[in-house]
Every structure is written in C-alpha cells, then in structure tokens.
Amino acid sequence: MNFKNFFLILVSVLLLSCDDDYPYAEVPSVILNEFWAQYADAKDAEFNPSGQDYEVDFNLNGKDHSAVIHASGNILKEKKEIEWNELPPAVQQTLEKEYGQKKIEDPEWVKIAEEILYQVEINRFFIDKKIVLNAAGEIEANRTYWK
Q1: Does the global pTM surpass 0.85?
Q2: Which residues touch 47 (CB under 8 Å, ≥6 apart)?
C-alpha cells in the first residue's frame, strides 16, 4: 500500500469518527419548537435539563437572555439583561436611595407568568447582595434571585 492510499484511509477514518450529532438531539421537539417560535433570532442557545423543564441560555440582539420551558412547551419564566435606564423610575429611585446607582450591577428584567420583576446585584466592599424588586420599586425579600 502506498503512502497516498494510507493517507486517504486515515483521513476517512478520522472524519467518520467525528461526532456530528444534531446539537439539540436530546431536547424534546415541543421545547425546541416553542423556543424557536418565541426567539427566532436567538444565537448560541444552550439547553440544560432541569427536571421536566429546560433552562435555555441564549443571546438576542447582543444581550444575554434565559428562559425556562416546561416539558409541555409552556414558557414558565424568562429574563434578559437590561441597562440602568430601562429600569422603571420607581425601581431606580429605590435603588438610588438604598444603595446608590454606582453600586448597582447587572440589572435584569424577569417575567414569571404575567408578573414583571427586576433583579440587580449590589456591589459592596466585602459582600455582594442580590435583590429582586417589583415594578413599583418595592424590594421582594421573599423572592429568590434567578442566577
């Protein structure tokens, strides 16, 4: 066998051993269909199973987004990164009064069912704090910050 034939066989074996599985092969089609119907322009979507649900992290219009989709295809909750000026005035006022605008990082818009919430990280000297607020600017101490 000459070198040329050996090389062709080696390349063929390497190409056949590559994993070309569809990247979403393990994700149920009802979840994929709902996700792509709602977020057709999404980029870099990563689906992570969590019980019956799937959490999807993706990029849309240059901003980080996440969604939790139930096995039935219903979107349970969604969040997106926003800018300070996109926070409602009441939320801005509460944050400025309690913490000062310079200490606020990573504001996010969160929708759970039909309820809209806002979550932010407070950058303190030794301890960072994460809080959730409603649109009226009230801190929702009983709400869990969605990471």
Answers
A1: no
A2: 24, 26, 27, 31, 32, 35, 54, 55, 56
